[in-house]
């Protein structure tokens, strides 16, 4: 450390010297509470001894403040882990399609790359992401206009949020089963897909409606790392406990796909009003299932498209109040069953920078 040539000249070199990540160094130099005070002090001491000063993250100035229209470059955050997730795929495709339509320059940035190098978003006009966002990025994105799509970690923020009305989605699924005469049901989800399952709005919406209907239901949670045979036996046990007649609400299309194939493997036949599965998402994953599966359509593509428009509005209006915009889900019953589309009644809301539209409701 006495030789100037040995002094770190970047956050990456400080991180390497201390055996920590670049993100930790960045957070420490910005006095973030996301890391311990001991580590903050250690990093700041090394930086001071070396005469190192990190770049600051300035608040983006609006066109009104600068007197000129800034060049837009949006950062689209994603997580490669979600590459096989049909909902994440639809969100990303819709976001990029909308940005391309509007001729807005954008860059893709993986969560891993941002974690290693927070400076990747330093010159971004705005950031858009979905449930790939992680809590420790909160400090990194501070001061940058940002929009979250279908994100449940609402206590982090602040950000503009665009999502479906999850409680209504669960209620629509329950209504379908109740209307079909099911007084016994199975509610099932995969651990990593349902954030805080005990209070998740989609699951809670289903639970409340089933209790109102005085219907009995059992809950089955599984982990993708578990032995598939374990879940198969749990599913079989639940169905047999109900005498072979039950309605099954699968949290999302990935779960519905697993449930339908598990039923086939166990020798069960899905039959109307006897043993049915209803899903939530309405992506390509379940469209080839036979017999077809009814689903609560969350209008994922529309949510993502509106989120892009909302981000551009936020960039132009940085001082406006943060927005929570919810779109109404819709029950879609495939051909082969009576065709109907159902939307719950709810008051209208005004998305950022748009006229009031019939299928946006405020988050309460």
From TrEMBL:
Keywords: DNA-binding, Transcription, Transcription regulation. The keyword Transcription regulation applies. It holds the Pfam family Peripla_BP_3. Residues 337-364 are annotated as: Disordered. The keyword Transcription regulation applies. InterPro entries: HTH_LacI, LacI/GalR-like_sensor, Lambda_DNA-bd_dom_sf, Peripla_BP_I. Residues 8-83 form the HTH lacI-type domain. Gene3D superfamilies: 3.40.50.2300, lambda repressor-like DNA-binding domains. GO terms for molecular function: DNA-binding transcription factor activity; transcription cis-regulatory region binding. It comes from Victivallis lenta. The lineage of its organism: Bacteria, Pseudomonadati, Lentisphaerota, Lentisphaeria, Victivallales. This is LacI family transcriptional regulator. Residues 354-364 have a biased composition (Basic and acidic residues).
């Amino acid at each position: 450390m006495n030789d100037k040539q040995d002094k770190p000249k970047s956050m990456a070199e400080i991180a390497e010297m201390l055996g920590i990540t670049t993100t930790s160094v960045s957070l420490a130099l910005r006095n973030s509470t996301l890391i311990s005070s001991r580590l903050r002090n250690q990093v700041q001491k090394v930086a001071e001894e070396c005469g190192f000063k990190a770049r600051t993250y300035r608040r983006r100035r609006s066109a009104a403040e600068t007197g000129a229209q800034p060049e837009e470059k949006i950062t689209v955050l994603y997580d490669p882990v979600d590459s096989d997730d049909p909902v994440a795929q639809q969100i990303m495709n819709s976001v990029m399609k909308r940005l391309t339509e509007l001729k807005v320059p954008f860059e893709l940035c993986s969560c891993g790359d941002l974690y290693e190098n927070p400076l990747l978003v330093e010159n971004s006009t705005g950031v858009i992401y979905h449930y790939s966002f992680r809590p420790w990025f909160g400090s990194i994105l501070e001061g940058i206009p940002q929009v979250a799509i279908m994100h449940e970690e609402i206590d982090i923020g602040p950000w503009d949020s665009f999502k479906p009305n999850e409680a209504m989605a669960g209620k629509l699924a329950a209504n379908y089963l109740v209307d079909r005469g099911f007084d016994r049901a199975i509610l099932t989800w995969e651990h990593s897909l349902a954030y805080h399952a005990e209070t998740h709005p989609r699951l809670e919406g289903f639970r409340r409606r089933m209790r109102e209907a005085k219907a009995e239901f059992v809950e089955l949670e599984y982990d993708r790392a578990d032995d598939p045979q374990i879940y198969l036996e749990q599913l079989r046990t639940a169905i047999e406990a109900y005498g072979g007649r039950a309605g099954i609400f699968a949290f999302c299309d990935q779960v519905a796909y697993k449930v339908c194939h598990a039923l086939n493997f166990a020798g069960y036949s899905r039959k109307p009003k006897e043993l049915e599965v209803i899903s939530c998402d309405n992506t390509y994953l379940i469209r080839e299932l036979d017999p077809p599966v009814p689903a609560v359509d969350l209008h994922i593509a529309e949510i993502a498209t509106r989120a892009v428009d909302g981000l551009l509005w936020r960039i132009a209006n940085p001082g406006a109040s943060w927005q929570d915009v919810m779109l109404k889900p819709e029950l879609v019953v495939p051909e082969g069953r009576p065709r109907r589309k159902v939307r719950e009644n709810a008051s209208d809301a005004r998305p950022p920078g748009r006229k009031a539209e019939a299928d946006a409701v405020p988050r309460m």
